[in-house]
Amino acid sequence: MTIGSGESVERAGRIDTAAVTALGDRVIGPEYKALPPTAWGMTVNEFLATAPYLDQLQTPVLTLDRGALTANTAVLADWADTAGVRLAPHGKTTMAPQLWAEQLAAGAWAITVATGWQAQVARSYGVNRIVLANAFIDPVGLRWAAREAALDPDFELFSWVDSVETVAAMERGLTDAPDGVRLAVLVELGGPHGRTGARGVDAALAVAEAVERSDRLRLAGVGGYEGVFAHDRAAESLGAVHDYLSQMVRLHRALADRYEGRAIVSAGGSAFPDLVVEHLAELADEQGTRGVPTTVVLRSGAYIVHDDGFYAGISPLATRLRSAMHAWARVLSHPEPGLALLDAGKRDAPFDEGLPVPQRVSGGSVPEGAHISALADQHSFLRLNSGSVAVGDTVRLGLSHPCTAMDKWRLIPVIDDADAARPRIVDFVHTVF
């Protein structure tokens, strides 16, 4: 049994919708931040049946906007389809099976993950096609993957290799795999001062040769991540991304007659999907009319939540996407002129790609020049150049970087409209971190 045979690339990926729906039967308790004690003992569905409003929850709280989630999902699904590439959203951004289900229902080809454990989470919810965009050498994880492949011929898993040593480590981990099980791997191309990935096309070709000699692995394509080479859209940064993607094309063409079965060419975060399409979309040839059947896979993950910070500034689709996430915090203290302390801190909101930005105060506008200058573990420092806020006011914060927002919350309320005078809770999203 070959894991990742790639013989059915035309269909969208699948998830066990019954398992996802069952999340609504989980019982609420004090382990879920911001949920009121009056909800403890109820299931999520029972609490939703009370038609709660956001102001019935405690602060701080992270929310997702239902309209933005739906619109963002449609935007990238349509954009990828028009570009002729497949979408395998990076599931590690949200680690939320409910959101994965929405992305798959919109036509996503697979779900991407970064670790073996994340792949196991996705598989536990019935995801049938997984891109593990990383080296996969953990022996426990490899034994699990081999068992899954032996049990389910429809299960497809694609992982990455970037060195001969990686190939050898995978072979050791698969020593006891059931007869006939072979793991599909993409040769990962990196670059100088990058992250993982073979350093150059020649090094990547040597890795491919090692895969070809293996009876436990199958050469299935080329993978990489261009976002590590640039962090903005300055001309020099874009040039670095262009150069890297050109090398990916070169590597794929060099391996075109050596793949076993269909080929996968995969790149793309949420910052430069336009450049990925510019370089790689021309390789897409799922019917094999020009040679080896080839599927180009874009792995953007942040788009479904988007943000009011890093991705709002760098995404080529920023004018079509809108942030679905906000934090709501209460003014705890106004100890001196020009300073107020909020009850949300590093435990509640992301700060690695920019500090939160105050957007509204108790339904009104924020004082001109108001900004967050720092976060402590449980406090935000709100600086006021003019005007004032009162102890007890609620501040809505715009956030940057969904990857480090979602992981701080196990149960996230979904509201009907973050701009409403009194947002209503219409759902909850469970995360698995």
TrEMBL record:
<dbReference type="Pfam" id="PF14031">
    <property type="entry name" value="D-ser_dehydrat"/>
</dbReference>
<protein>
    <submittedName>
        <fullName>D-serine deaminase-like pyridoxal phosphate-dependent protein</fullName>
    </submittedName>
</protein>
<feature type="domain" description="D-serine dehydratase-like">
    <location>
        <begin position="324"/>
        <end position="416"/>
    </location>
</feature>
<dbReference type="InterPro" id="IPR029066">
    <property type="entry name" value="PLP-binding_barrel"/>
</dbReference>
<dbReference type="InterPro" id="IPR026956">
    <property type="entry name" value="D-ser_dehydrat-like_dom"/>
</dbReference>
<dbReference type="InterPro" id="IPR051466">
    <property type="entry name" value="D-amino_acid_metab_enzyme"/>
</dbReference>
<dbReference type="InterPro" id="IPR042208">
    <property type="entry name" value="D-ser_dehydrat-like_sf"/>
</dbReference>
